[in-house]
Design goal:
Elements (H helix, E strand, L loop, with lengths): L1 H15 L5 E13 L3 E14 L2 E11 L3 E13 L6 E13 L1 E15 L4 E14 L2 E15 L2
Antiparallel strand pairs: 1-2, 1-8, 2-3, 3-4, 4-5, 5-6, 6-7, 7-8
């Protein structure tokens, strides 16, 4: 199942790369605050203006807390760009997390992107999510931060 999801993610992103400016979040950090503390690292790629003004982003995650978990996910993001000041964005997406069992997640994101140069920014993002596994659900609230690099 994971191989199929990864292939679909690669196919969607490879079609998206021709649409707009590409970006990568090389080493984003993720701190989950609810229900318990965990720390994660994510590597993601995306492209702006894939579906009109919407950007598409997908990537891989590694989390540690009570155990180690591996995840994949994809998001749709809408950027509110302004000249010379921090940019805001919001969106949502889907994800799978494997940690002994498989969790399916629906997440939102609200973020702030602070420009440093034309191609290098820092971002801070709030990520509320609902995770479903085996007939039960769990609410997770995360804060993510790190560098975002634009490629064209």
């Amino acid at each position: 199942m994971r191989k199929i999801v990864v292939l679909v993610l690669v196919a969607v992103l490879s079609g998206a790369f021709a649409q707009g400016r590409l970006f990568g979040e090389v080493a984003g950090g993720n701190i989950s605050l609810v229900p318990g503390f965990s720390l994660g690292v994510q590597a993601r790629m995306g492209a702006e203006n894939v579906l009109g003004p919407l950007a598409l982003r997908g990537g891989f995650s590694l989390f540690t807390g009570t155990g180690t978990a591996f995840g994949i996910g994809a998001d749709v993001i809408y950027f509110l760009r302004s000249s010379g000041s921090p940019d805001f964005y919001f969106g949502g997406g889907l994800g799978l997390v494997s940690s002994g069992g498989t969790l399916f997640g629906i997440n939102g994101n609200v973020g702030l992107e602070v420009p440093v140069t034309r191609d290098f920014n820092f971002f801070l993002e709030l990520q509320p999510a609902l995770q479903f596994a085996g007939g039960s659900s769990n609410f997770v609230l995360g804060i993510e931060f790190g560098p975002r690099l634009y490629f064209r």
